[in-house]
Amino acid sequence: MMPLSDPDAFEAAEMDRLSAQERVTLVVLGALALTALGVLAWQRRPVALVVSAVPSDVEGRQRPALLMAGAPVPTVTAAPPQAGWDGALEAARGVDVNAADVAELERLPGVGPALAARIVEERECCGPFHSAEDLTRVRGIGPKTRERLEPYVTVE
User: Fold this and answer.
1) Among the four residues 99, 124, 146, 156, which has the most C-beta atoms within 10 Å?
2) Residue 108 falls within a domain, yes or no?
3) DSSP classification of residue 110
4) Alpha carbon 20 to chain centroid distance?
5) Digit-coded pLDDT (tens) for 70-127
6) Residues 5-39: b if buried by 16+ CB within 10 A, e if exposed
7) Are residues 37 and 56 both part of a single domain?
8) Can you give the CATH number for the domain in which 139 is found?
């Protein structure tokens, strides 16, 4: 028997008496205990949730907000109509696609600088548009885009 005055010698002597199967069992139990501790720590961590917040601009794109679990979720309320937005659409009504420049065409809903430039380029290249349906000649304007633009354009 080993003297109790040296605890390291006692543990080493006890480990020598364990069979290979008992050693493997101890290692597996230790690994399981560490895994369980890791899972518990992972479950208790604060969870970040991505929640859509209020629209970040007039085009309706949304900006994500980072929230911690248990934090109150912001509610989205309808924004008051912005001054000038409806006025811009009203001014866009009746834009003559055969006479308008790029800046005027950009006021149309869904028409950016590139599409406005292609409309002007198509008009100069292939002649004037005879109806709103002729806008489908422009690359990037399909039937749905033409239908959306029809109330706002004129062809003279």
Assistant:
1) 146
2) yes
3) T
4) 55
5) 566 556 555 555 544 454 554 545 788 888 899 998 888 889 999 999 999 999 988 8
6) eeeeeeeeeeeeeeeeeeeeeeeeeeeeeeeeeee
7) no
8) 1.10.150.320
